[in-house]
């Protein structure tokens, strides 16, 4: 009796283990095959499913991107005044066009008077010393005076030359021409002159404000080098080359595109897996200002690509797929990444260890298979 009970227990354990293994195999098989669907010949015929092979075609690619109006550092000019002073007058508004050499504002301060006074005083002293040097030189040569006197006067003359040169440079820094300055045109005001031809992009001051030498009063933009900086995804960056044409539009004027041409493609990719392309406007628009948001489309030249008919590509749950024929009447759903499309064909991007040209793909009525697969998953 004990032997019978023992045999029964052992049999039960063995059966349980086998049953568990069977369930695991079934579960594993179900997981492996959850993206596969099997149809009968009649079902394939009724659904009008057509199988084809991906092929190589030249395809024209169009890529959309977004970005902003940019300007290189050398074309964005910050305007300060080296001696500081009170801003007496200016008539600028944002976007005002200015020319090189034009007065942007009028500055006023007593330090300007002092600088002019110092220069004219130094100039007068210089004239006296110049004459004295000549006189002492002649006396020294005729031995009517000691050489020591001549050397002292000459030393003072050279020191005065240094002072004169320094004062001349200071005057030129604030826009006063030393050769034009005399006792009759000393002024407490000076003009702040534009160093470039461009337009005003920023105003940081108001009339009557005292500004220090480090304060930025205005910012000017040189429009000759204003350009577009567009953000492009990593997967598309290699498609852009110098000379590629495109159209961009301001966010508030999408119906007024502006022609641009790629001048530079950056060589680095940031943490968002995007890169930047720089473009020049083919016809500059004065209403375009640095920082403005843009959207654009770029038409890229023909390239050789692996393509399938657009009907072969399924869009499901935010992703893209095709069905691959893996055996007689058996199909497997495979996720893909697509590129450009043209004339009813769409590019499918290469995948590791997968030669698309050796695959059989459902090119017509693939959605019928997707419906069958979803019903299978539900069941």
TrEMBL record:
Pfam families: BSH_CzcB (PF25973). Keywords: Transport. GO terms for cellular component: cell envelope; membrane. Residues 80-220 form the CzcB-like barrel-sandwich hybrid domain. One of its GO terms (biological process) is copper ion export. Coiled coil: none annotated. GO terms for molecular function: transmembrane transporter activity. This is Cobalt-zinc-cadmium resistance protein CzcB. It comes from mine drainage metagenome.
